[in-house]
Every structure is written in structure tokens, then in C-alpha cells.
Amino acid sequence: MKGGGVKRFFKRLLKVTATLLVLVFLGGLGVGGWYVWHLSGVVKAKFEGQKWEFPSKIYSDSKIVYPGVSLTADQLREKLRRLGYRSSRHEPRAKGEYRIRAKNAVVEIFLHDFQYPLRDFRGFPVRISLKAGAIHRIQRLDDGEVLPSLELEPEVVTGFYDRVREQRRVVRLDEVPVQIRKAVLAVEDERFYYHRGVDPVAVLRAFVANLRRGGVVQGGSTLTQQLMKNFFLESDRTIERKVKEALMAMVAEWMYSKDEILENYLNEIYLGQNGAQGIFGLWEAARFYFVKEPEQLTVGEIAMLAGLIRAPNRYSPYRNIEDAIRRRNVILAKLTNDGIITRRAYERALQEVFEKREPIRLTNSAPYFTDYVKKELAAHYSNEVLTAEGLRIFTSLDRELQQAAETSMTRGLARLEKDYRHLRKIAKKDDLEGALVVIKPQTGEIKAMVGGRDYRKSQFNRVAQAKRQPGSVFKPFVYLAALTHGSSRNHESYNSATLVEDAPFTWSFGRQDWAPENYNQRYYGHVTMREAMEKSLNAATARIAQDVGIKKVREMAYRMGIESRLPLLPSLALGAVEVTPLEMAGAFSALANNGVRTHLLSVKNVVDRNGTVLEKRNIRVKRVISPKVAFDMNNMLRGVVDRGTARGARSLGFTRPAAGKTGTTNDSRDAWFAGYTPELLALVWVGFDRQSELGLSGSRAALPIWTDFMKQATSRLPVTDFITPPGVSDTGTDARAGDVFRCPEGGRRTAPGIQGGGRMQPVETCG
């Protein structure tokens, strides 16, 4: 090739190469531009969308205390501990502090602020004086006003989680005290307001420090880079990740203000672990470590929080107080050198003592109840909403009653297995189980729910899901039908003194014959309705049902609140049908409420993260039986407790006025007791899931558990008696209950006259 040709060749090659380089450069710019555009979209979606998942939280009911309520200083201290109050040596000066003094006779509390569904409560200091194990006086400390009652805020019971288990409360930047912001920036990125996402000065400083120490001892990442890593990237230290982190930081700084980035950082930052839940954000950390709002933190506490950022678990004061204090002191020295705090503040902060306390664990303390609540909510709220949108769900749960119910159930079933050897043998193939539900009759609120012996072994809720035969617990519906409608044959009325024949008989119904039998084949002849109820006599009860009509019995059960399908058969009168314990408890609560049935209530209010009430469930009531019929029924059921099949409650030490009914199925597979005082109703069921034969009556298996619970549950309440409803006379009932025909002196009661159908109607006169 000649010289001219070589020159043309190299010129052509140079042009091609230059063109390729330009194309590569332009292509790189294009790809780089596209990549930056892509990253800007990712950053924007995060900053302007929902950044975090907020688990919805279930709250218990608030606690009302007032003079006369039994309460000790220790019980109040435990309640305050669960609510996140902190003990103080001096008179409470800040919200969330309390002091117990005067040999446990005085409790001083500075109440928290709390956002209730329909009002905001602002905390104030109070003094509760105790005397003889009860509240004597409640008085404000600020103005001296004597209060008739005091409301303690609800407790968090549990949260609804999906994939993540994070505790976080988002706050605006202006809600974070300036001193906290300065401390965080001094420790993590003191040149934050002077760089554009990547700080060459910090990178060079870190490079020199690491070179001197022969290893990685200091990082050069800015606060913005840390935020990008937390938002989008893994923690592995690779060149690719660091480059992406830097690019995203610069994009974020270009798109958003410094204050917006700092606000996100303060809410995103991981600051430790509380069991299975991570602690994220400064507000949550302040509550977790110091039980304070951020504005209440001392200088030493601020320094300790700022020191946690580098290694939260290593410097956690709950894990290693010595390391935490050393780290705090290093931060305090830097804050002093940087002029953020004075020398005097530094010296005072060094003397601060961290009061180590048991962290408040967000554990599910009422698992069966919360499962029931979640099912109630499922009709209106998806799982995504419940696990990510931070709803606050206020419920009817009473934490003290729930704990008492769980204790009584565990203790009661263990006692049964200890006392009855055959139960231990059956337990090898079929675990002995129980259910207990507690209702406030006047409102229908479910105050406690124990759906089984051990939630970890079985999540099946026997209160709401198990359909079992109620046996004799069903009998009050028969008597209610009789008191309401009277005889279907001759329209004669019934009352508790009406005589009924308790003897074997055969009831022909349709093409079938049914012959009810008494327990132990023992019959009593002519007895009053009251006696039939107290002794739980099957034959006498079946005769009443026959006389009234089984259809009216079924209608009464539905009216009282039973929702399960009830077959129209004579055996229905003795509870040969399957219902849930919750249905039975709801029906009995209408008796305890003088004939007014209240719709069962577990969820009271649902509030979103911004405080807007999404749902308010009001108390719904309906009169289902007359006050007189309810009064007569309650008197008969009081006799069951005082003299009848439930008199064991008295021998076990329960002395309050109470009414109730035992229940045992004919095949001895189910044992029940439903009982109530004027304030509280509780129902207990005991049996085996696979329906092995229990071999115990309701009075032996269920009643002791009920008694143990009710002794605990009512111990703090004043003793009250059932009240005769207005306009209802207490005449016309059985003399043994104290509710007699009150004739003038010298008067007499006539002998009963015999009616048809084996029934005797007393003709009561005074003469």
C-alpha cells in the first residue's frame, strides 16, 4: 500500500473511532440520563407515597376508678407500668411520672395526654389517697379540685402485622426539639446543610482515618445516603451499592429540601429492638427507652439516643448500660466542643442515672379476643388496611378481667386433672379444654374472652366457634316461655310458686315418643317451679315445656339471642341442641339486665392515623321480656346459687348476690355454668374437643372455675344487690327466697289446687 493510501486509511479509521467514541459517549449519556430519570421516579414514589407500613393497634377499654373501689398501691403501680408511666422520687412534674409515698397510702400521678376517639384529653397531676385497700379520695394537684372519678387511658393490647414488625410514630420536623436535631447532625452528618447528598470532605476524612487505623473505623456516608440505604438498598458493602446510594442521595437532594430529608431520616432511623418488634424513629425510641415524649428528654437522654444510631443493639441501655453510658459521654463531649450545649449542661448530664426498667412488650395478651375482633373488622377493613394504615381500634376489653379469666381457666383445668384421674387418661388422646366469656350486661360489652387452654397449641376459639350441647343451661328459656305465655292448654299463668309434677312420663310428639329422665333417676313428685329450677329437674321442666308448647320455647330462645338453628323437638327443652358459649352468654345477659338484651359489643371505635373516627359502634338494646318476668326468673336463678345445683359457689367462698344455672348434657360430654351478679356475667364451658366423655357435672367442672374468676373480678367492686324494677311487686313468689305473699298479720295462704296435665296452680289469697 502506498503512502497516500496509508494516510487515507488512518484518517478514515480515526473518523470511525471518533464517531464510535461520540456514539458511546452519547449512548452513555443517554443510558446515564435514563438511569438517573429512573432513580428520580423511584425516589419520588417513596417520598410522596406511603413510606412505611403502620400496623393497626388494638386498645383495651379505659379504666374508671372512683372512691370506694378496692385498689392497692401495688395494683395501681402495675397498671401504670403497663401504661408506660415512670416512677419518680419527687412530686410528678412532667406528664407520665408518678410517685407512691406515705407507706403506700398516697399515689401521685401526672396523667398522660391521650387522643380518645371523640375528644383529646390533656393530662394533669392528681393525688389518689388509699385507705383500707380502697380509693378514699381523688384530688387534682394543680387546683385542689376533688374529683368523683378518674379515667386511666386504654392500654395497647396488640398490633396487626403482615411482613414487618415495626413500631414507629411519624412526627413532623417542627415537633422534634431543636437540640435533638442538632445532636443527631453533630454525630451523623455535621456538614448536612452544606453538601448536595455526597460530601467529598467527609469521604476524604474517612479515607485518612481508615488508612491510619488499617481498617474501616469511620464512614463517609452522609445522612442523605443513609436514608437512601434504609429506604431502598441492602446493607452489604459493595461498590455497586455505594454508587447507587450516592446517585440516589444526589437525586433526593435535587428534588427535596434539606428539612424534608431530615424529617424522613428522623422517622426512618432504626434505634433498637423490643422483642420481635423493631424500634424506628426518634419518637418511638424516646418512648421505648425513657417512657417520654421527645420534648421531655434531658440532655443526657438526647445524647444517649444520638449515640444509638451507629450501633443500636450494642449501645442499648437495656442490653449493656456500661457501653451505653460510655457512648453517651462521648456524644456529650462532642456536643460541648461544638457549642451545642454549655459546660454546665455537660456536667449535669454526666450525673444523670439511667433508670433501667422492664420494657413494655407489645405482646398479644388476649389472643382469642383479638382474633374475634379481627374477624369482626374483616367485613369492613381488608388485611392490607389493618396491617399498613395504622388504625387505632378501641375495644371493650378489660385487661384485669382478661388476666383473671386466663388464670382461673388454667388453674381450674389443672385442678380437675389433678382431682379426677380419668381426665388425665383421656388427656393422652384428647386435651381437656375450656372456654370463658365475660360480658357487662348493661352495655353488652365483651370484657374478657378465653377461647381455650393454650392459644399456642390451638387457635380454635371455643367461645365463638365451638357448637356444643348446653344441656340444662338451656332450661331458663323453658321457664321464661312459661312465665311469659302461660299454659297453651288452659291459658293459666305460671309463677315461681306454681306446682309441677316431677315424675316419669312420655311425651308423644309427631310420630315419636320421648321419655325424659332425671339425673340419678330420682323424682320428687309435686314441686314448685322454683324447686324444679334449683334442682334442675328434667321431668318437671319437660312437663312445663309440653304445657307451654315447644314452639314457644324455641321462640323464646331466639328472642333472648340464640342464633343457631333450633330443631322443633321435645328434647330441645333440655338443651339437646348445639349452640356456642357466646350465644348462651348473650342470652343470659338479657336476664342480668332486667329483660333488656344488648347487642354484643367488642369494637367500640375505629380511628385512622390522623385521628378521624371511621366507625363508632353504639350500644344497641331491645327489650325482649318484661321486667316482671325477668325479675321472677332472676329470683329463681338466685335460688340455684343459694340452695340448688350451684350452691358450691357459696362453699367456695363467693358470698355476693348472684344468679345462675348449671348445665350438664345427658352424655356427660359438656359441663356449663352461666352466672351473673348485677354488674357482671360470666359463662364457663368445660369439655373435650373430640367430645370424649367428661363424666362431670357443670357444678363440679365449670362452677369452680366461674367462682374463682368471679371472686377475683368483683373483689374491687362495692357489693350490690339485684334491684326490683319500678312497678314490679315482689309478691307472688316462693317464700324460701324471701319474696313471699305478704299477707296482713293473721292472714294465711291457701293450699294449691290441682290442674290438668300434672300441673298444680296455687290459689294464693289472704284472709
What report would you give on this structure?
With 767 residues, the chain is α+β, with helices and mostly antiparallel strands. Among the domains are: 67-153, Penicillin-binding protein 1b fold (2-Layer Sandwich), CATH 3.30.2060; 168-350, Biosynthetic peptidoglycan transglycosylase-like (Penicillin binding protein transpeptidase fold, Orthogonal Bundle), CATH 1.10.3810.10. Helix content is 38%, strand content 17%. It is built from 24 helices and 30 strands. A 5-stranded mixed sheet has the order 11-1-15-23-24. Helix 1 packs across helix 6, helix 3 packs parallel to helix 9 and helix 10 runs antiparallel to helix 11. The longest helix is centred in the N-terminal third of the chain and has 46 residues, at 3-48. The radius of gyration is 36 Å and the shape is elongated. The N and C termini lie far apart (151 Å). Residues 731-767 have low confidence and may be disordered.
